[in-house]
Amino acid sequence: MTDDFTAPEQPGTTSKVLDGIQSASRHVNDVIQASRRPGMPLDSLAQAVREAPLAALAIAFLVGMTFARRRR
Fold this sequence. Notes:
By secondary structure, the chain is mostly helical. The chain has helices at residues 13-35, 41-51, 53-71.
């Protein structure tokens, strides 16, 4: 009788990180899909951008400038 017992392999660091990234990606995707339902915030935002894309771009630019100035 030999003593050739091998322990079960532990998942490597790479596979653990990959599993974590995939889990986080699925969670973010689920949240985005839920907020795109009618009446939810992303749906309202998407409708506003479709109706007035230039105005939405101007507002996004102004908000960006506001945050950029605060960081200086």
